[in-house]
TrEMBL record:
GO terms for biological process: cell division; regulation of division septum assembly. The lineage of its organism: Bacteria, Pseudomonadati, Pseudomonadota, Gammaproteobacteria, Pseudomonadales. Prevents the cell division inhibition by proteins MinC and MinD at internal division sites while permitting inhibition at polar sites. This ensures cell division at the proper site by restricting the formation of a division septum at the midpoint of the long axis of the cell. This is Cell division topological specificity factor. Gene3D superfamilies: Cell division topological specificity factor MinE (3.30.1070.10). Coiled coil: none annotated. Keywords: Cell cycle, Cell division. It comes from Pseudomonas putida. GO terms for molecular function: identical protein binding.
Amino acid sequence: MNLFDFFRASKKQSSASVAKERLQIIVAHERGQRTTPDYLPALQKELVEVIRKYVNIGNDDVQVALENQGSCSILELNITLPERT
């Protein structure tokens, strides 16, 4: 073993640590790409069930959206109510 091999061996990473770093990069990238949280469909379903206790509405009459503005998140809820007769 010569002197150059010694320095190269100390910088060489194990395949497990390289794989871990790559996975962390992929996970961070995927989190950045997600525009809506996983809980929004369940939230919308529960809101429809609660509103149905008081007003006759369909599943498509409630829209839930989440908008990020800097460090603030805004939850927008739109409900189409039936006309009164």
